[in-house]
Write a structure and sequence with these properties.
This protein is mainly α. The longest helix is centred in the N-terminal third of the chain and has 25 residues. The N and C termini lie far apart (52 Å).
C-alpha cells in the first residue's frame, strides 16, 4: 500500500481533517478528545500531529517564536503609533510584565498542548492498527510527543500527559525537573525504529534518526537548566543518564553523528537555509514542511513581520512594520558587520545588484510572482539598517516602471507617517525607557530582520514555501562548540566556531569573501557567535539562560527575577483543570 503520509511533501491532509483537528478549545478541556474518524485512521492522526508544528505553533511570530525571541535581546515588537498595542501583550514579552492572562502565553501553551494531544492520539491509533510500517510510524509519533513535551516543559516547566491507549486514563502533569531524563531515555530508545533520513521515503520534514540525534543533543545541552531552572549556577558536567560520560559528552556524541554524516554540509550561502526553495539545503535536519496550497497550513510571518508597510515585494504585498532587533544585539556585531551572516545583497539575472544605498535607479522586472505573473522586487537579506529603498506603488495598483519595463527604485518613507523616512535606526530611544512605545513619527526606529525570504505568492502574512528549520547543521556545530567549551576543550570549541565563520561566504558583489576566523574564544564571544549563527531561530532564550544573560536589564527590560525564566500556566487552564498548579512567582 502506498501511504499518503509517506509523501507528505506532495500529498497532504484534507481540509476537512485539519479543520476538525483545529477546532479543539483547550481553554475548556485540556486534552480534548479527537474525532473518532480521525483517531481511527493512523496515518491521518500522525499527519495531524506533524501538522500542528506548522499550524501556527512554530511558524507564527505570536507563539513559540514570541516566547523564545521577544523575551530576549534579539527581538522586540514595540507599539508603533496606533499599531501593535493589542492591550500590551507584545510589549509584555520584552518588558517582562507578562502574567497568566497574557494572550501570547495562552496561545502558545494551547498550541503546544494541542500538539501533545495530537501526538497521543496518533500513538493510540497506530497501536490499535495493523498498518505496514507500524513500528516506524509509532516511533515517529512518540518522537513528536517528546518534542512537543520538551518544548512545553522548557517554556512552562510542566506539560500534560495521558496514557494514549486508555481514553479514560487520568491526566498526569509531567514536571521539567523529573521529565527531562525520561524524555532523553525515551528518544534514545526510539532510535532503532526510526528511519535514516532519505530512506523509507523520509526527508527533513519527518522525524528520523538524525532528528532524534539533534533533539538529544539539545536536551542534553539544556538538561542541567531544566532540572533546576531558577538556580544561580548549572552543573553542565553532570553524569549523563546512559552510557557514561557527562551531559556535554553526550552533546558531542550526538552532534558527531550529524557532523560526520556525508548527507549534511554547511551552506556557503548562509541565507539559502531560509529561502523559499530551501528544501534542497544540505543543512536541514528537521524542519516544518510548508507548501503553498490550500490543503496545508503555512505562514509567512517570519519574513512579513519585520518589513515596513511601504516595502512591497510585489504590487500585491507589503510588510507590516512590527518587530525589529534591539540595539544590544545590533551592536554585538561590532567588528563583524562584514560577516556573511549579517547581510546579503540580491543580484538579478541580468547582473543588476540591488545595493539599497541610494545608487539604484531601477531593477529588471523579469522575476515574476508565481500564480500572478506580477513583477517580484527582491529586497536584500539579513539585518537591514539605515535608509531603505524600493519600488513605488501607483494609484492603478502597479509598480512605477521605466519606459523599457524595469522597476523604478525610490527612497522610501514610512506608509503611516509619509514625511518620516524609512531609515531603520539601531537605537530605539523610547520616550519612556521602560515601555516599548513609539509615537507615529518614531515608527522608523529599529533595525529590521530580513533573514527569512518573503514569499509574495499568497498575500502578505499568508502562506510560504519556506520550510522552517527546527534543527540544521549550523545549530549542531554551535551546540557542539558550546559543549566542548563547557568541557574546557576551548581549542575544539574554537575550531567549530571558525568552521561556521569561514564556511559562509559573502555575495559576489563583495568578492565571495569568506568569514574571518577568530584567534581566541571566551564565554562572551561564544555567546555572541551563537547569536550570529542562530538569530531568530527560537534558540536565543535557552542560550541566554545557559549563559547567565536572561535576567540582565536591557532595552525596555528591567533586571528580572529567575522565576521569569519559566512562563506561567495560563489562568484559563488553571480554571478548567485541577491537575495543574501555577508556577512559583505568578
Amino acid at each position: 500500500m502506498k501511504s499518503k503520509f509517506l509523501n507528505i511533501n506532495k500529498i497532504v491532509l484534507s481540509i476537512a481533517v485539519m479543520s476538525l483537528m483545529g477546532c479543539t478549545n483547550l481553554d475548556e478541556k485540556l486534552l480534548d478528545e479527537v474525532p473518532s474518524s480521525i483517531a481511527a485512521d493512523p496515518e491521518a492522526s500522525l499527519a495531524a500531529a506533524y501538522g500542528q508544528l506548522g499550524d501556527g505553533t512554530f511558524v507564527d511570530h505570536g507563539s513559540v517564536f514570541a516566547l523564545q525571541e521577544y523575551s530576549t535581546d534579539e527581538a522586540i515588537l514595540p507599539t508603533r503609533g496606533s499599531d501593535w498595542g493589542d492591550g500590551g501583550k507584545w510589549r509584555a514579552m520584552h518588558e517582562f510584565t507578562w502574567d497568566a492572562n497574557n494572550d501570547v502565553v495562552k496561545t502558545t501553551f494551547n498550541q503546544l498542548t494541542l500538539g501533545i494531544t495530537k501526538s497521543l492520539t496518533a500513538i493510540g491509533s497506530i497501536n490499535q492498527s495493523n498498518i505496514s510500517n507500524k513500528s516506524l510510524f509509532l516511533a515517529e509519533a512518540k518522537a513528536l510527543l517528546d518534542y512537543y513535551t520538551y518544548t512545553t516543559i522548557d517554556l512552562f516547566g510542566q506539560a500534560p500527559y495521558r496514557d494514549p491507549n486508555n481514553l479514560n486514563a487520568p491526566i498526569e502533569i509531567r514536571k521539567a525537573e523529573t521529565t527531562i531524563d525520561a524524555l532523553i531515555t525515551d528518544v534514545e530508545g526510539l532510535i532503532p525504529n526510526l528511519a535514516d533520513i532519505k530512506t523509507q521515503n523520509t526527508h527533513a520534514g519527518r522525524f528520523t534518526k538524525q532528528a532524534a540525534y539533534a533533539l538529544l543533543a539539545d536536551m542534553y545541552l539544556n538538561r542541567a537548566v531544566l532540572k533546576n531552572k531558577t538556580a544561580s549556577n548549572f552543573n553542565f558536567l553532570e553524569q549523563a543518564i546512559n552510557g557514561g560520560g557527562t551531559d556535554m559528552d553526550k552533546v558531542i556524541q550526538y552532534s558527531n553523528l550529524l557532523i560526520n554524516n556525508s548527507l549534511f554540509s554547511l551552506e556557503s550561502n548562509y541565507f539559502h537555509n531560509f529561502d523559499i526553495n530551501n528544501d534542497n539545503s544540505k543543512e536541514l535536519i528537521f524542519t516544518i514542511v510548508q507548501k503553498k496550497n490550500s490543503l496545508r497550513n503555512a505562514d509567512n510571518d517570519l519574513a512579513y513581520m519585520s518589513m515596513e508597510r511601504i516595502q512591497k515585494p510585489s504590487p500585491d504585498n507589503r510588510g507590516t512594520n512590527a518587530n525589529c532587533i534591539t540595539p544590544e544585539f545590533y551592536y554585538s556585531w561590532n567588528g563583524n558587520f562584514d560577516d556573511p551572516r549579517f547581510k546579503r545583497t540580491y543580484q538579478y539575472e541580468d547582473g543588476t545588484w540591488f545595493r539599497n544605498d541610494g545608487t539604484d535607479v531601477s531593477v529588471p522586472s523579469t522575476s515574476k510572482v508565481e500564480g500572478t505573473g506580477k513583477p517580484w522586487f527582491h529586497f536584500n537579506r539579513g539585518l537591514q539598517v539605515g535608509q531603505q529603498y524600493g519600488p513605488k506603488l501607483l494609484a492603478n495598483g502597479n509598480f512605477d516602471m521605466t519606459s523599457d519595463g524595469r522597476i523604478k527604485v525610490y527612497k522610501l518613507f514610512t506608509e503611516k507617517a509619509t514625511t518620516v523616512a524609512a531609515d531603520f535606526t539601531p537605537e530605539l530611544n523610547f520616550d519612556n525607557p521602560s515601555e516599548a512605545v513609539f509615537t507615529q513619527v518614531q515608527i522608523n526606529r529599529g533595525v529590521r530582520n530580513f533573514k527569512f525570504e518573503f514569499d509574495p505568492g499568497y498575500g502578505n502574512n499568508g502562506t510560504s514555501g519556506m520550510d522552517v528549520p527546527l534543527y540544521r547543521l549550523g545549530t549542531i556545530y554551535m551546540m557542539r562548540a558550546e559543549a566542548y567549551f563547557r568541557s574546557t576543550n576551548v581549542t575544539a570549541a574554537l575550531a567549530d566556531v571558525n568552521k561556521l565563520r569561514t564556511s559562509r561566504t559573502n555575495d559576489a558583489l563583495h568578492n565571495n569573501a569568506p568569514g574571518v576566523a577568530l584567534t581566541s574564544l571566551d564565554a562572551n564571544t561564544l555567546f555572541k557567535e551563537s547569536g550570529y549563527e542562530l538569530y531568530w531561530e527560537m534558540y536565543r532564550r535557552k542560550a541566554m539562560i545557559r549563559f547567565g544573560k536572561f535576567d540582565l536589564p536591557g532595552t525596555a527590560k528591567p533586571a528580572s527575577q529567575p522565576y521569569r525564566r519559566i512562563f506561567p500556566i495560563p489562568q484559563a487552564t488553571l480554571d478548567a483543570s485541577k491537575e495543574f498548579s501555577q508556577n512559583p512567582g505568578y
